[in-house]
Amino acid sequence: MVGSLGPNSRKHKVTVVGSGNWGTAIAKIVAENAANSNGIFEEKVEMWVYEEKIEIPETSPHYDASSPLCQGEQNLTDVINKLNENIKYLPGVRLPTNLHANPSLEDAVKDSTILVFNLPHQFILRICDQLKGKILPYARGISCIKGVDVNENGIHLFSETIGKRLGIYCGALSGANIANEVAQEKWSETSIAYDPPHLDSKCPTPHRSPNSSTVDIVEFEHKDTSGQISDVKLQPVPNEYPPVDHALLKRLFHRPYFHASVVNDVAGVSLGGALKNIVALAAGWVDGMGWGDNAKAAVMRVGLLEMVKFGEKFFGATIENRTFTEESAGVADLITSCSGGRNFRCARLSIERNLPVEEIEKTELNGQKLQGTLTAIEVNRFLSKQGLENEFPLFTAVYQILQGKMSVADIPHHLEC
Amino acid sequence: MVGSLGPNSRKHKVTVVGSGNWGTAIAKIVAENAANSNGIFEEKVEMWVYEEKIEIPETSPHYDASSPLCQGEQNLTDVINKLNENIKYLPGVRLPTNLHANPSLEDAVKDSTILVFNLPHQFILRICDQLKGKILPYARGISCIKGVDVNENGIHLFSETIGKRLGIYCGALSGANIANEVAQEKWSETSIAYDPPHLDSKCPTPHRSPNSSTVDIVEFEHKDTSGQISDVKLQPVPNEYPPVDHALLKRLFHRPYFHASVVNDVAGVSLGGALKNIVALAAGWVDGMGWGDNAKAAVMRVGLLEMVKFGEKFFGATIENRTFTEESAGVADLITSCSGGRNFRCARLSIERNLPVEEIEKTELNGQKLQGTLTAIEVNRFLSKQGLENEFPLFTAVYQILQGKMSVADIPHHLEC
Domain Glycerol-3-phosphate dehydrogenase NAD-dependent N-terminal: where (chains A, B) (predicted)? Predict the structure, then answer.
């Protein structure tokens, strides 16, 4: 092959959109792998940072009265780039020098072929609107945003929302991953789901002429559970780039301390991260009752089965049971969340203090909201509209308890069959 | 139907063989259900007790200086029957009055159609030899004995060993069941596996004439992984009795506080209770290292997958993956064992105190042995004889660590793929 248009003559540029503690932890991983990629990825990885002003406090290990960085307010991006540390959202963790904090969204994503989305879900639509027209039309996305968007009318995966808004394909990453533990390189696992239409396969498709950089346009369908179908014109990744496939995503995300498994089941990986929070509330209540480890394991097992059933019922065509029962994004994330996650802890405290969960939420979470209570209510609205509450007795029990219509002591009877 | 030989004109007599804390807890459950069975079971349930002498101490709530029961040594069975409490092995738990402690094995099993085996596994062979010729030839068994018998040459289920020795069919019961919690009626779940050859089905088989009490003899095959096939002549349960099927076993074992699920997969239910102890050691080590909840969930997930793989490889014809990933005897028992079970606790202590597990075992367990270390060694012998150690990296890592040939810090690298 000759010239810059030959296969694999170009490297993937990777941008992480978001820089909270989880965003920064993932950017660290991606930059570490890009630095040792043997020409697959550009070494420099961009991380878009919502710019804010910060001051380095005198108590910080980075404080140096003589440094210009310590003279009053500074841009967060400047501080990150100079110190190689996100002292605001991931303090104490050294970042690779090839990770560049960029305050300009447009500049950060320019020419990027791989976009990693890792920001609070309430910002997705706004950010996508800002990204429209600014990204490569053949870029690929990975959403690290936990959970799904559920309402009466349907369940929407954040990865799908991003994909539709931007006209690109977007997969998902989820697992038993507490951001600070991952950042400290404590061993964990994750699941990456990626299953685009067969445009990017190594075998050339009829739509693609292998030696041309011309981008063919192929239509594929996004079908969500609301029955809504939107046609997105998906463009194949030009073949000058290494193919964006499972092996490439493993190279981008797998680390010795962060074991990544790459699967096809985007819906399963995304749903696991949402539904487990409902189960964690139930596990916290049962634990608070002092019923012991048997009972806690029982409620987790029943919850896992309802997750499987929910997936089968509403994403039957695409979901695989084994995602819930065998993947990090399923059973392992459930176990972690029922060990010490905030939904579990607040539910347990609510029994110990004999207060409703929302009271605990107010006193314990500094104004933040529990994901589990929101998801339990949303999922219940969706199920009850379809008359399916009885088929999910644990999810329904959690909702009823949150509404004060059932007591925790009734859980075993409610689950009896 | 007319006369005493008509369908369902006879009731099942149930005997529990064994009276430790788990044996007594199960006997309590069975007797509670027999007392309310609407004619399916004899009300009186027998529990065979290895007779011993005990003295009621003055500190006991049952002590009454004027009672003949408190004048020196008494038979344990007399004490159980008079106080309705097994003060030696399950103190503080009231037993149903229709449960009869019986010191005579022969008398306890006489005319019993359902035998529930619940005693330490090292006594099985001896007890079976004593039972030979003393039980009904068409009795059915349920083994509550945890684990399996593994050696270099094969894996033998205790239920199979009992069945072969006695010439009867024997199923298995296992789950996330800590005996004392079950006895205190704290909610838990269990799995019962029962899958006899089609002799007992409601549809008459060619071997069985529906209106006769004649017992036809049919041969069925027990095939274990050693390749050894033994022919057992299995006799159908006469049709004067209600059929011994999944529904009947649910009536016998299910309680509002003890939810029983009845499945076919005897090998899966039995293997789960053995292999989870290997995983619990790894979880304890990882927890002891302070690697956090992500890492503990990861090692449990990998362990669960190796349990599935082990089942598929060696019991492929009969085992169902979902037993491990969805049943109480699988994932829930694994979760319980990795929360506070003794294998988990001793492994964690071994890291915290920087001592080998066998040292912790000596100081913490009053001379008892950890099941996990025995099983890890037995399973390793079996795997290594077949050259399959590399296919089970976690099981192999646990063995290597126990042998001092690998360090816990190497677990993540060892599991990397």
Answer: 13-196
